[in-house]
From TrEMBL, chains A, B, C, D:
SUPFAM superfamilies the record matches: Composite domain of metallo-dependent hydrolases (SSF51338), Metallo-dependent hydrolases (SSF51556)
GO molecular function: dihydropyrimidinase activity; metal ion binding
Protein's name in the database: D-hydantoinase/dihydropyrimidinase
Family the entry assigns: Belongs to the metallo-dependent hydrolases superfamily. Hydantoinase/dihydropyrimidinase family.
Gene: hydA
Amino acid sequence: MTKVIKGGIVVTADRQVQADILIEGETIKEIGPDLKGDEYIDAEGAYVIPGGIDPHTHLEMPFMGTTAAETFETGTWAAAAGGTTMVIDFCLPGADGSIKNAINEWHRKSAPQICSDIGYHMAITGWNEQIFDEMKYAVDAGVNSFKHFMAYKGALMVEDDEMFASFSRCVELGALPMVHAENGDLVDLMQKKFLAEGKTGPEWHARSRPPEFEGEATNRAITVADAAGTPLYVVHVSCEQAHEAIRRARQKGMRVYGEPLVQFLTLDHDEYLSTDWDHSARRVMSPPFRGREFHDSLWAGLQSGSLQVVATDHCAFTTEQKRMGLNDFTKIPNGTNGLEERLAVLWTQGVETGRLTPEEFVAVTSTNIARILNIYPKKGAIMPGADADIVVWDPKISKTISASNHKSIIDYNVFEGTKVTAQARYTLSRGEVIWAWGQNSQPQPGRGRFVPRPAFNSAATALSKWKALNSPRSVQRDPLNIPAGV
Amino acid sequence: MTKVIKGGIVVTADRQVQADILIEGETIKEIGPDLKGDEYIDAEGAYVIPGGIDPHTHLEMPFMGTTAAETFETGTWAAAAGGTTMVIDFCLPGADGSIKNAINEWHRKSAPQICSDIGYHMAITGWNEQIFDEMKYAVDAGVNSFKHFMAYKGALMVEDDEMFASFSRCVELGALPMVHAENGDLVDLMQKKFLAEGKTGPEWHARSRPPEFEGEATNRAITVADAAGTPLYVVHVSCEQAHEAIRRARQKGMRVYGEPLVQFLTLDHDEYLSTDWDHSARRVMSPPFRGREFHDSLWAGLQSGSLQVVATDHCAFTTEQKRMGLNDFTKIPNGTNGLEERLAVLWTQGVETGRLTPEEFVAVTSTNIARILNIYPKKGAIMPGADADIVVWDPKISKTISASNHKSIIDYNVFEGTKVTAQARYTLSRGEVIWAWGQNSQPQPGRGRFVPRPAFNSAATALSKWKALNSPRSVQRDPLNIPAGV
Amino acid sequence: MTKVIKGGIVVTADRQVQADILIEGETIKEIGPDLKGDEYIDAEGAYVIPGGIDPHTHLEMPFMGTTAAETFETGTWAAAAGGTTMVIDFCLPGADGSIKNAINEWHRKSAPQICSDIGYHMAITGWNEQIFDEMKYAVDAGVNSFKHFMAYKGALMVEDDEMFASFSRCVELGALPMVHAENGDLVDLMQKKFLAEGKTGPEWHARSRPPEFEGEATNRAITVADAAGTPLYVVHVSCEQAHEAIRRARQKGMRVYGEPLVQFLTLDHDEYLSTDWDHSARRVMSPPFRGREFHDSLWAGLQSGSLQVVATDHCAFTTEQKRMGLNDFTKIPNGTNGLEERLAVLWTQGVETGRLTPEEFVAVTSTNIARILNIYPKKGAIMPGADADIVVWDPKISKTISASNHKSIIDYNVFEGTKVTAQARYTLSRGEVIWAWGQNSQPQPGRGRFVPRPAFNSAATALSKWKALNSPRSVQRDPLNIPAGV
Amino acid sequence: MTKVIKGGIVVTADRQVQADILIEGETIKEIGPDLKGDEYIDAEGAYVIPGGIDPHTHLEMPFMGTTAAETFETGTWAAAAGGTTMVIDFCLPGADGSIKNAINEWHRKSAPQICSDIGYHMAITGWNEQIFDEMKYAVDAGVNSFKHFMAYKGALMVEDDEMFASFSRCVELGALPMVHAENGDLVDLMQKKFLAEGKTGPEWHARSRPPEFEGEATNRAITVADAAGTPLYVVHVSCEQAHEAIRRARQKGMRVYGEPLVQFLTLDHDEYLSTDWDHSARRVMSPPFRGREFHDSLWAGLQSGSLQVVATDHCAFTTEQKRMGLNDFTKIPNGTNGLEERLAVLWTQGVETGRLTPEEFVAVTSTNIARILNIYPKKGAIMPGADADIVVWDPKISKTISASNHKSIIDYNVFEGTKVTAQARYTLSRGEVIWAWGQNSQPQPGRGRFVPRPAFNSAATALSKWKALNSPRSVQRDPLNIPAGV
Ligand SMILES: [Zn+2]
Ligand SMILES: [Zn+2]
Ligand SMILES: [Zn+2]
Ligand SMILES: [Zn+2]
Ligand SMILES: [Zn+2]
Ligand SMILES: [Zn+2]
Ligand SMILES: [Zn+2]
Ligand SMILES: [Zn+2]
């Protein structure tokens, strides 16, 4: 059976064209004018874009003594409603420390629930021989990226030598290391200092992890990656300090990628100064929202290419869960929503203002991460042969974001009251319409699939070649020029 | 009749894939495995890439009292042999100052000669109402880019207010302004100073136009472009100073593009210190070759995306012509060859070293400029519907560059003796093989076509939207708050 | 007769020490504990600092069709009340273009009026042989600095080649070139554009000369200075863009100085948005006040040494005069007050906040400019032999700045309502108390003297040596290697 | 008894003046023309400058299984011959970890040996309550600076949290933290990696600690210092990466000081490629010499003020000692000579080339560090009341540096063969001539004194004020806005 998306303007990372799209089964068959098919999907007056890929979610993740409330079902359903057709979720080892078991556990949890496709990043939270060995298991299983926490001291944090070991292992495996970049030692000290001073409110969360700590850790991770000879992906870039470190590295030709969150592009740290405790606590995440003076830096990064990907770090806890930290900001579970809102907020505040071109919008929400994670053009593309993960993106549907109408499981929304001027008219996952605006779509848990990702992407391959060619040799010294005693 | 390029690895700006390419007539019909056609072109063991686009040539251009020796025929033929299937040539108004007449003159000269496709940039060398009016003619005629010389005082140079006027006109027309960025006043003063001191040799050419002058002019042009509200394309970026200005602008979200030349990526200003006058004079161009310390900066620009396009500024004069400046370096016709060598040199010193990925190589030699100049994906792409401008790029053919075996008309080669490790096995222009390695191919003058380019590319459109939304308004003052006397 | 300043903390650019100061006649004799003299000046609880030097004033200057209202008498009297004991005033050639006549005219005007010492900078507003010749006259007459306007097109503005010629002449004479750095072409275009659009209010003054225009011109002037081989002094640095250009040059070892104004460190461009026309117009100056986001940049420049001097550009017009531009912002005379307030505002917002040390306060208000202008340690120092230009600076006297209590001749104050927490208890000029807080001091016109300044300061000398040693030589070519025909 | 230094040009950090200097006992009494005294020291044709202060020496320091060969006697004697009248030596705790005992041990060793004055920096090599307590002892004993090693893992290295604790303690005590900035984890990993690969030669020393590791650690230390609210002094800055981090911090107003070594300004890492093992090993120090491309960066830092002090890290081991690392570069004792050569090399390659003014030479060799370490103007100044630590600096004495004629105890010299064009004609320590060129001067061990340094210098005081004023407050939340459960 074939479908034709009819009458829209196809926007990809490299062009805009008025064209129909013919879908056969799960993949795109043809792009061109006047295509025919068994069914038609109306795209008149709309853009037709690759489905969004959110490379940074934490669904049902056990964290800080509780578990993220957003499930694989509600999360992927909210994603679909928002125009996102794939998430890459962070997989954490359990008590046994096994990567293999963690991946299997993630499969067990996600498989029956996911409404669209999924992939994982694997977290490296320590270093030993088992981890070294099982990293290969992960790559063979289609997980080609490894996350390292430089914060959360005493819990997830790894030290520089552990990062170096893991990054070096990534080079061997052709995998991509990622970092959560904040100086965990300093955050820990600040937390203790503030608590000791009786400073317990959520505003102190932000103050315990200032931009300088993020910039420092970003710079350090880049140094480690360069020493190991690997590209690096920096998740949730929130500030100029981290962005500066990334830019500086890139100016030297280093292969470093930066991922601002849609929250960091649009929301302000003054939210933590609300006199309503719940309001502030709901916005607690790490890194925290930053001052408005950083927004321009991040937008310019997307425009100039020094930042490549807009994600969400969607890790949604209920107000009830947030209240675990009523007397102690360090106990507020870290995380906010964003998975459902990402495309609409970015379009409204990015494309509608002229900051981003429509092509850039597609690049930063879908194509770039697909290329970085080596699943392009299966994902992130509209071209013959690609998966038909497609969104009919209607720039005429306005909406005010609210917890009262969102799909997410949680009881609030950090974008509450934000007006957006575009929405997904239809969302297709592998050829199937999984969301249709105003048509009472329902989640289809279990139809999503795990998408394995091959190792050794192009940048990693080139960098390894460069490093090999530029390794120094030992000086050849005549024994006569070496003192006796050797 | 159909052709299939068989067995190669297709490399585009966004991916590599083992696939055949089916060509029907002049365009690409299909990309995929096991395609069938009337004819087969062997690409086993080779890459298959979009034909190179050199956006910066001066063929048969009248300049400095002579005319560039490379003709449209020899130039496009040399291009074909080197894997380049389209050039964008600089069109200069004649004595009458008419843009319209200049375009027609360029058509008259190029049409019977060109072996592959061509486009023009139009030079703006002064400012008056005729120019204002005829800029629209140019755009309507498919010339959507205008070049401004900030050097060559007393000849081509324009002043800041003229640039502003022209840039503003570009905004209205949706055209792209370009600059040759060197401070012409200072160059002129240095030239006079050196000549007055009896310093006449070609080494003084380079010293009369140091990197600082280029950086200054680049920065100034960016300021003018930002004031006018237009993207800007900086041709022949040779040094860190100019690159820094471009990076700094891009970091603020400005839409500035930079074009290093393959010469500037690989050749050194010490060439001007040769005790052989001819050797030095043959390398005289503006800007001149720079110190090796800048090469890394330019390569990193390509890697990080702060520079987008590698061109050649091919403007080839014979040794005889160069000798016009025997007693006065300011009379040496400015220009070098490069059109034929660009791809092979960049591949060898870029891709083979691991500096660039194959995808990046395609991006900077073809795709990026096609997008910037708004002819993508007709040109610069391998996708269904695109022109079949395709090169079968063989990474196993080694060669030493030499005037003795090049196609260019001139009697020397600035890359003389440089070893390259890849060459075009076949070059196709709109589906036709116009070059086949080792098979005694012959130029086919007149088969090339002029390719008109539409205005209002995506970046210009976005920028205009941003500028419109961010224009300030007048303060509303109550007449009571305005002093009497108004 | 001797005087002793007793009981204070002497603060110089390099140290703080509890000490008395013995003055004999016009100069300092000794610094130490328990000094005796004929008279005592009480400095208990106060700091004792070198008198302020304001290197940027325009007293009684004919400008924009009127003459600055502040006279040499009222200006130097206001200065004394504010703790400033020397001003360097800008001397402009008259209609005859003669430097010599201009200096004599300035002497004629200033001599009978000045209450404390004075020097001049000479403006270069064109280029010809007379100017070339008379620059030497100026230097011989003790004027070792020359100002160049890159703005005020059609009036004071000079072109790049004129700047180069004048800068080169400065090198020969050992004089220091200075620039008013704004791109005059672009300002002129913006003014015309806004007026043509009916935008006539004072807010459009600021918008017609954005920070980018200042940054551009600063960068250009630096390039010209580097080409000529001279240090450069950039007056009234208002923004990060100009500061960045200065920093970038200094990072390369270039000898560039930057002078933020106290207004630019503390006042905001939102003042131009006042609905009270007079309020906005009174603050019209060039460059204009900038956004608050730049204040941190300028303060940090003072802290780190990338900016060296805090001046005022005191050029005070009455409200009546400002109203010349009621229907046309380009006709509002450019200039604000500040001479009287500089020290108190800088102390309160700089030293009292911990941004600056007391030593740095002295450096940027007095010592640095004395060194740059080569009159140190006669001025700008507290050491034996130095002129006894000394201020007893009382950090306990609070005051709210107001036109109602200032000494300036004008009818408003741009710092109106600003609280300051320190004032001059006593101001001494060459050993004489010319201001005593609360003691009904009166101006003493005519007691001030012109202070000639020698040429060839230390930085200029070093730079000339460096340039001489690093000049390239011609390549020696064997005639055999030069083609026949030479 | 009085002495007069007659006929020279007195150069201080702020001026040059032809003047005599009258010395009474140990201090300077007067500076002026035609002074009389009991004795005369001829300074005709010479400069008269404050005695050099080398703030970075390791005399007789136990390190890497041996003890630095240079003794307090030979070291201070070599210093005197080279124009340096004070050293600040690094004091290391012994096995008991006691700061108090270490200081006493250093007194015990140095007192009978030193020929001129001395001070100490105290090393913090771990963290516990005893160290916390004894830091106060150190400050009370006149040691106001504490050094932290970020390298030498397993030996001297401290972690980020330990640095933060110590830096915070410094804030309380008004002391200055210093860092040896290299990422010790990464160095350690590289060392192990290279050794495991059989790479044992001294060239691998440099490669195991690349500039990036130094830049990283510098950036990290700055972040820690900023969090703690203290100025920071970075010792032995060798490269642009570290300099960049310092500049970037200073541009934000942070109080960070950088100390390049004279070796890093003039010597090249190619020395490690010598085929003579001894030659390379003798130059092993940490950080190592760097590529020539960094020299310009460091010189420009001195010119622009982003770097403030030129030191030597004099830590001299004999060839015999160096050979401890014959089979393992990690066992080569780290350190080179420089104490004797610093002034002459810096003058020759700095002042004689025009890079530095004579005043800047004095600033970076003496005055700046005296101010930073809060012993100015007792040391580092030529003014009445200052210690008569004075050098008659003769710019006419040429010399080729060689182990055959130096005063240092070691058997080679890393500057061997370097020509210098100036030498100390006389060196005075507290009024006493301790070195006279060509007059067979002899060391006078035991005449030197320990110089205690007070805490709370001006920059630290200002910074503490700024931090206190800019600390955020808790949000006041109405209990009604805090959820029940609190
Ligand atoms: Zn995270
Ligand atoms: Zn996360
Ligand atoms: Zn050009
Ligand atoms: Zn050209
Ligand atoms: Zn001005
Ligand atoms: Zn002025
Ligand atoms: Zn060290
Ligand atoms: Zn050391």
